[in-house]
Amino acid sequence: QYNLFRGETQFNFPKEPETVTFETPFGKFGIFTCFDILFHDPAVVLVNELQVDTVLFPTAWMNVLPFLTAVEFHSAWAMGMGVNLLSANTHNIGMAMTGGGIFTPEGPVAYHYDTETEEGHLLIAELSSRPHLSPMYTLAVNWSLYATSIKKIPEEQNTFTGAVRRDVFTFTELTHKTGNHTVCQKDLCCHLSYRMSDKSKEEVYVLGAFDGLHGSVIKYHWQICTLLKCKSTDQKSCGQPVETAQTKFDMFSLSGTFGTSYVFPEVLYSGIQLAPGEFEVLRDGRLKSKHSLSKPLLTVTLFGRHYEKDPPHPLRTSI
After folding, report:
1. SS3 content of the chain, % helix, strand, coil (to 5)
2. GO annotations under biological process (predicted)?
3. Which of 225, 229, 236, 282 is the most exposed place for a label (fewest CB within 10 A)?
4. Could you read off the pLDDT of 255-265 as tens digits, one per residue?
């Protein structure tokens, strides 16, 4: 592992990233480990420069709502990067480690998420060995095209701030069953069109934007546009982890003025369930529902990584 998580910094690590690949009759494979998936080296290098088809991904991933639950983010990464990701997660519910899957550019083929038992699960699925050659392969997306080309929508006046862990988001509440909203932070403006089928009076949803550094020991730059359910009707709870919801949406369309081409689309349903086949990414950068959603919604997120804005790695600069 090249990038160590904050609790792992006592371990040794390579001075240079090691890019591990091997050719098979089933396509070109690459390997990286756990926290590496959030960084340019070696994760993006394997896909963009070494052109792997499938990534083998051993991990001990601690689930963190609302954006970094294992199956949620790993599926989004496979879609955003256009490769297969075979994610094998440690299963230790006492440490909130669970969730593995077989993920493709079109979405999850098979996944398992279990916070109740210590039972493991063997996943078997059939998938394209060379997804770039598949007729279903998603063409390049310009993640800021739609958001920067639409008519200027006045930024919301009734915004408020809320913390997702330590990250301070700018939020605006969705007060009606249908609407269009814009919320901005720094260089990022997020646009949302939506229609709820039946809004629960006991539930609050917000549109949020974050543009800045995340992390404690190792900091890295995120740009995030998100539609999310708050933990309670108190606005102060917006951004806190929540696992269940009752409100269904007839439609949503989320976009943002991203300064990066590395954006990962997430849709998470009540009960920490993914939504395969129920949303699509348009080439102009919109994340849209295909039809009325089948389950109550927790989050819809465009998770951007602005690698060029990452500060120097504190451990490596001290070598």
Report:
1. 15, 40, 45
2. pantothenate metabolic process
3. 236
4. 999 999 999 99
Among 214, 217, 153, 159, which Cα is nearest to 185's? 159
Shared-domain flag, residues 213 and 305: yes
- Do 300 and 275 touch, CB atoms closer than 8 A? no
> Would you say 206 and 230 are in contact if contact means Cβ atoms under 8 Å apart?
yes
Residue whose structure tokens are 């089948």: 294
Residue 319 pLDDT: 46
pLDDT at 12: 59
Which among 100, 133, 166 is the end of a domain?
A: 133
Structural domain includes residue 15: no
Rounded to whole angstroms, what are the CA distances from 234 to 86, 230, 308?
39, 8, 36
- Asked whether residue 188 falls in the same domain as residue 251, the answer is yes
Enumerate residues 6+ apart whose C-beta is below 8 A from 150.
191
pLDDT recorded at residue 240? 96
pTM value is: 0.93
Number of domains in the chain: 2
Judge if 227 and 96 occupy the same domain.
no
Note whether 122 and 168 are same-domain residues.
no
Name 135's Cβ contacts closer than 8 Å, sequence gap at least 6: none
Q: Let me know if residue 160 belongs to a domain.
A: yes
Residue 316 lies in a domain: no
317 part of a folded domain: no
Residue for token pair 């295909």: 290
**Predicted confidence (pLDDT) per residue in 296-308, tens digit:** 999 999 999 999 9
| Residue numbers of the domain that contains 70 | 20-133
CA distance 125 to 46: 23
CB 194 within 8 A of CB 231: no
